[in-house]
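--- STAGE predict ---
source: upstream dedup step, 1 unique chain passed
mode: sequence only
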Amino acid sequence: MTAEIIDGTKLSEKILEDVKNRIKDSKKRPGLAIVIVGDNPASEIYVGLKEKKSKEMGFQCERYDLSEDIKEEDLLKLIDDLNQKQSIHGIIVQLPLPDHMNENLIVDSVLPHKDVDGFTPVNLGNLINDNNMIVPATARACMELIKSTGIEIKGKNAVIVGRSKIVGKPVSLLLLQEHATVTICHSKTEDLREHTKNADILVAAAGKAKLIKKNMVKKGAVVIDVGINRTLKGLEGDVDFEAVKEVAGYITPVPKGVGPMTIAMLLDNILIAMKLTGK
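--- STAGE serialize ---
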């Protein structure tokens, strides 16, 4: 048995086409502000992708590159200005931030209806209450990839490896909304294999290259690999792809899996935010 490859690039193209059509039908142009602090190569690549794709779709995109030693109060002032700017519908503060900054304080300073990353307490709280307003883009991407397989999620055993607020926690809540039985594993979990081998749906988001081995995956499972690990061999996911594809039913590759879908979901979030602002 060889798994069916879930093509995130192909699926994202359909979503982006819908986004483009919705912009054409709109009387206003969506505005995105991207704030990046310091010089982080990984952040630079991701910000570049967001900026490039948003402009291709016809968004107004403003990028703010700030020095690593900027004062926290100056960053907060910039975010406040962007909160008040009517032409900006979505604000992204690229993480991680320098050590001298309070990340929670900075993230929380973005108005919830402009928080297109979905990281503010208001948006995460809405998710807990099954009131999805703006959902973290990578979590949305995972769900769309799972649903693209056509499997019924209700009643399935779902295991998420990783408990970040960016992926693990929101994905678990979205799967609960679909009536899956959810287990979250993390660095302190004893006998990880004991949990993953029983998963009908396995989401790997731990940030450790090839953590998930063939003997840890249930035959026929849906495997979503969120990991992007830079190694001497190039980009590798959290899943040992070549081995696991021999037992899984469906699997996402790295790259061309979750990555392009995350960008598509982010741009869709901006249109949601534009509708919420009403301006």
